[in-house]
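pasting for the record
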Amino acid sequence: MKQVHFDVIIIGAGAAGLMCAIEAGKRGRKVVVLDHANKVGKKILMSGGGRCNFTNYNIDAENFISHNPHFCKSAINRYTQWDFIGLVTDYKIPFHERKHGQLFCDDSAKDILTMLLSECASVSVEIKLKCDIEDIKKTDTCFKINTSQGIYDTPSLVITTGGLSIPKMGATAFGYNVAKQFGHKVWPTTAGLVPFTLHDKDKSSFAELSGIAVEAIVSNPRTSFRENILLTHRGLSGPAILQVSSYWKAGEAVNINLLPDLNLEQLLKSKQAEHANTHLKTVLAGYLPKRFIATLLDETLLNQPLQSISHQRFKDVAKKLHKWTVKPNSTEGYRTAEVTLGGVDCDELSSQTMASKKVEGLYFIGEVVDVTGWLGGYNFQWAWSSGWCAGQVV
């Protein structure tokens, strides 16, 4: 079988891979992107409910999790959110801002993918789908890649095959295995930005509350996030839960402040003085769904008038609602996780080029690297930034 040469071979036709291909193509490099999937950019298309939360107005190293928290700084400072927003604007893609600086397409995530593919076409990037990688070998001068569509060789090999999240979309451990093959350390992986499941007792207690969403502050000993939480038939979800899940450790409880803008103890004392005959449940129903309150608090207490409730009981009720403590059973795992924590050790890569410090000509970009962003467009920005950096040098 004939061996075909490319200046750059990129394995993985996702956000980071396409960005790297575009930048390498702009430099006149002969580039091919290989992917085992039958479509390009599946995660781009499904992201943001089909509208692609493509970046965030506020990008900072603090928005990323890594064993080397400084590693991402070079990339996100060299190719910024403003650079990508500029590209989106050039293509006249309409977009809007939601909470916390999150940017979404007005119409469809297809707009972002079409833009990337147009950029690839403009610099003659080849994309080969349904292409399974069977073997990768390194010679003195190049990498030799045996695939289901033929044999390719290149001096510059970029691995951008993502993490383990959403296996039904084709996620595999391929990138981690390549890293290990070439002597790289890979940090253990876990599911991130993922809903919690509950122990059977809690699950049965809250099963009827499925669909209820409230704004809350969710915290653990390391961090806290204020956003909506959503009760589901399996457990807890919603933006605040997803954010904290990336910092959660098995066996650990999380605290949920269901009334972040209120001093409930003081409110109840004031209401008692002003409206002594009002029932506790009537006061609380002004702030939280009735079904939720009925599940968290004793029914007899809820049906009492404020005048018959002691200040100590007010304190107990306030503690319950300001510091609702939940001990998750687990998470829903990679099946529904938006990202994968862990990955290729950043200390063994150049923060400026994403090049391996161990193997000349080998690069790792995107989610396969031990850099994981918060919910809100941060993971896409890491893909754009890391892909751009590698594209300048491959």
